[in-house]
Design a protein that fits this description.
globular; binds 6-hydroxymethylpterin-diphosphate; disordered N terminus; single chain; alpha/beta
Length: 281
């Protein structure tokens, strides 16, 4: 039976929330950026950002993932200074941490993560899996917070065996985590859909997700509005809702415990219907 949790429970153990809810979690995306690939500029204004956060929570988001620097691998996301990233987050973070769901900070910088943890975020989302900023692992260990380790690479190479590459990347990140003193039960693994991957490799990541169940950690998939959908059926980012929902449903079938979505209401509804059909079997 589901029980209610407050956001401090989540910092104890990601599995606590998963077990308590007994269903996949939906992480709602909040981009306080001018240049995110699908919604850049829409939520740069603090009022628009907090209103969007409220909508995401009302729609059923279990976690809010806030980012102030686009991670867009191709198409030239502008690198943002520490000061600028913090300035974008400052008017938003203190408000969204009061909404009753845990907030994760999506950043490449340990200094930004530390600042966000000081201001109420309780999860670190590192799209370089502890392998970019040398201070990230130490920070996560010291604060004892959950961390999302996402696979990434600079460029896509169709010749790469993406499943094997992600497996060794995860192993390397887990070794870094262990050496830093991060408890294994604080870790979530994410194959990083669209990051340094061809469209086919992104599809493979979802189809072969069960490969990484062997690490014994919850798996997160963020397929929302990503380019592989356009590769299957040409569409602008804002027109990829059907593909995003389909990808997340299949990801859950293949073992994902958390999906990262811009469009929370349809994702929550689709997951609930899929679960109900599964239960009726
Ligand atoms: N995808 C994006 C950003 N952060 N974090 C995790 N763990 N997994 C993902 O798949 C992931 C992520 C890209 O999406 P978005 O935040 O909308 O775009 P941008 O990075 O351009 O702001």
């Amino acid at each position: 039976m589901a029980m209610s949790l407050n956001h401090s429970d989540f910092s104890v153990d990601v599995l606590t929330l998963l077990l308590a809810k007994a269903r996949p979690l939906v992480m709602g995306v909040l981009n306080v950026t001018p240049d995110s690939f699908s919604d850049g500029g829409r939520f740069l204004d603090p009022q628009a950002a907090t209103a969007q956060a409220r909508r995401l929570v009302a729609a059923g988001a279990d976690i809010l993932d806030v980012g102030a620097e686009s991670t867009r691998p191709y198409g030239g996301a502008v690198r943002v200074s520490l000061e600028e990233e913090r300035a974008r987050l400052t008017p938003v973070l203190s408000d969204i941490v009061t909404l009753g769901v845990p907030v994760s900070i999506d950043t490449l910088k340990a200094d930004v993560a530390a600042w966000a943890l000081d201001h109420g975020a309780t999860i670190v989302n590192d799209v370089w899996g502890l392998q970019r900023d040398p201070n990230m692992a130490g920070l996560v260990a010291e604060r004892g917070v959950p961390v999302i380790i996402m696979h990434n690479r600079e460029t896509a190479d169709p010749a790469v065996d993406i499943v094997a590459e992600i497996t060794s990347f995860f192993q390397r990140s887990l070794d870094i985590a262990q050496r830093a003193g991060i408890a294994r039960e604080r870790i979530v693994l994410d194959p990083g859909i669209g990051f340094g991957k061809t469209a086919e490799q992104s599809l493979t990541c979802i189809a072969r997700l069960d490969t990484w169940r062997g690490f014994g950690r919850p798996l997160l998939v963020g397929a929302s509005r990503k380019r592989f959908i356009h590769w299957i059926m040409p569409s602008d980012p804002m027109e990829r809702l059907g593909g995003s929902v389909a990808a997340h449903l299949l990801a859950v079938e293949c073992g994902a415990s958390i999906v990262r979505a811009h469009d929370v209401a349809p994702t929550v509804q689709a997951l609930a219907v899929a679960a109900a059909i599964r239960n009726a079997r």
